[in-house]
């Protein structure tokens, strides 16, 4: 997968560095990522004063690739710093038309608007720019008070640190929430899907803590949630007593290890059922002894 960061003059460093760190960490997991930094000129000034070097030649992109536009410092959208050439706008539009995904952080939403990709779609941007975005693109449906919004492979985020949430969401969508949680843990940030995300994965929802003991146990459960996992084995894996594990797990997640495992099983079973599997087949695939327990958990949920 190629991730192309389109750098606009006066780009905000964190708008760029947050998502770049996420995808470079995924690359370090040997999942086949390439990161590219392109611009309309080789030297790009940043809002924080550190100049960046980029290439002007775009790599060849396919439908599995991503274009991401970090935000830039501008009092309003449409200032000369954010205006793209016709060829750049056409590249963004053509990539999306060919089945690719485009994303933005903060003011980067304006680049997607210039490419005609916000009309008729839900989107967001930094809270200080939402009114201007709505005025500049009246056919766009600006969503407020969310971290990010995804609409037909157009993904926009609120700005600054929310670019990390956007990138983790894209990783979770492509590789599953366990990989996203692993990346977030490496970055020492909360793994979360917030804002407009329609699915709130249990793996990410209960990873918003910094307990290394609990993370180690969650790593085991995430990898083997369909197996029988006695509490003593989990405690042994974490190097603590069963009582200590139960207390720490509850403090960090509000759950017992068994309840967390059940949530993962239920979430996976619902996915299988939604794709045509019977309740019995889904129960078997996710480690339930029979379908009755799965039915009870679904009814309770």
UniProtKB/TrEMBL annotation:
SMART domains: HTH_ARAC. Residues 215-301 form the HTH araC/xylS-type domain. GO terms for molecular function: DNA-binding transcription factor activity; sequence-specific DNA binding. SUPFAM superfamilies: Class I glutamine amidotransferase-like, Homeodomain-like. Keywords: Transcription, Transcription regulation. It holds the Pfam family DJ-1_PfpI. This is Transcriptional regulator. It comes from Dactylosporangium matsuzakiense. The lineage of its organism: Bacteria, Bacillati, Actinomycetota, Actinomycetes, Micromonosporales.
